[in-house]
Specification:
Elements: H1 3-34, H2 39-42, H3 51-62, H4 67-80, H5 85-106, H6 111-138
């Protein structure tokens, strides 16, 4: 596969992460300006944010958790030339499920649906790792 094909899903995932980061900052600044939260209440990292900023911030934090395994897998697959069409399909499935997860998290925040999207993404990522490991260990 071309480097562009392999890295495009990574760029989308990174874009989602930055989008949520800036959105978090925006809603937090708005909360401070409106007086919904006071600077002294957040100065020591206390959980004083109103529900909406906390919800968006948590969606952002989620992009720094399980996706680290996605980034590692992509790097290893590129380094070992195990980045074929099947790999790219799994990449896109994972990233699409992360987009769905983030949309649910920042939208309806339906915990059951959000959890389903999360688990589906984890399963896709896990299968990708298993396929990669088998290919490396068997020399396929």
């Amino acid at each position: 596969m071309s480097i562009q094909s392999v890295l495009l899903p990574v760029f989308v995932q990174v874009g989602l992460t930055f989008f949520l980061l800036f959105w978090t900052g925006g809603v937090r600044v708005s909360s401070l300006r409106s007086g919904a939260v006071k600077m002294k209440d957040i100065a020591l990292g206390q959980q004083a944010w109103p529900e909406r900023p906390a919800q968006i911030a948590r969606a952002y934090q989620n992009q720094l958790e399980i996706p680290i395994l996605f980034y590692a897998l992509v790097g290893f697959a590129l380094f070992t030339n195990k980045d074929d069409l099947l790999f790219v399909i799994f990449e896109w499935l994972f990233v699409l499920l992360r987009l769905v997860h983030a949309a649910i998290h920042t939208g309806s925040n339906n915990v059951i649906r959000r959890f389903q999207a999360f688990v589906a993404g984890v399963i896709v990522l896990m299968i990708g790792w298993i396929i990669f490991a088998v290919r490396i260990l068997t020399g396929i």
